[in-house]
Amino acid sequence: MSQANESYLLDVQGVSKHFSGLQALSDVNLQVPEGSVHAIIGPNGAGKSTLLNVLIGLIEADQGTVRFDGRELRGIKPHDIIQRGIARVFQTPQIFPALSLLENVSIAALAKRDGQFSVRVRESLGRGHAITDEAAETLADVGLGEHLDEPAQSLSRGDKRRLELAVCLAAHPKLLLLDEPTAGMSRHDTNRTVELLGRIAERGMTKIVIEHDMHVVFSLAEQITVLAQGRVIASGRPEDVRGDPRVVEAYLGGGREEQ
Ligand code: ADP
Ligand code: MG
Predict the structure, then answer these.
(1) Which ligand is closest to the CA of 48, given by its number?
(2) Which of 87, 100, 149, 245 is deepest in the core (most CB within 10 A)?
């Protein structure tokens, strides 16, 4: 049992959440040091997305505390949590389909800078503006540098997820939350995404990734937390968690495995 510790970027202690009779999270602890990559795994319905929703302020926990960057997050609105430096990549991409890739990423950078949201980026920014230049660089980083002026809706599913990642990176989060970033991707796109996430890790951005693809988990994560039916059943380094009998049981004996 770990104690609250200022040295963690994220420190979740005793978080519980129920939905009308269903205990989605029970006494969940999670500590994430700055600069590390932490995976959350577990069968479908284990509470993984609910936990991220608590972190981002979309769901209020019934009990427990969440400290981020030394401050309690309880009661803080999602928008302010983003301003404090947490960004989340959703299970389904959240982008503006009719706007270009460059506009999508520039909007995110502007929103972070000004705390305001405007889709009139064409009027507020031109090419050559620092924000547009950085957006173009970020898009190049995620492998979309050739498509800056194309509308987001023209992208393949895998590329849309990369665009969404670029949108999140534009806000320079301290903590990036990824909910199944490779869901629905081909093996080729999955490998490209793993490579990309590895590169972001090298820059020192702290990440929490929910993932069902064990290849992805073991390539990226330094620590793994295993949830089953809302409880943490194991937590530790990948090599320790991999063979844990409770983890094997949760996957094989318990809930349905995803995909
Ligand atoms: P996971 O992401 O691990 O698959 P979720 O966190 O999405 O699991 O869901 C955990 C449990 O909570 C599931 O049984 C799910 O049906 C339930 N649940 C999630 N969100 C809600 C909600 N807003 N209202 C009611 N039940 C919910
Ligand atoms: Mg989920």
Answers:
(1) 1
(2) 87
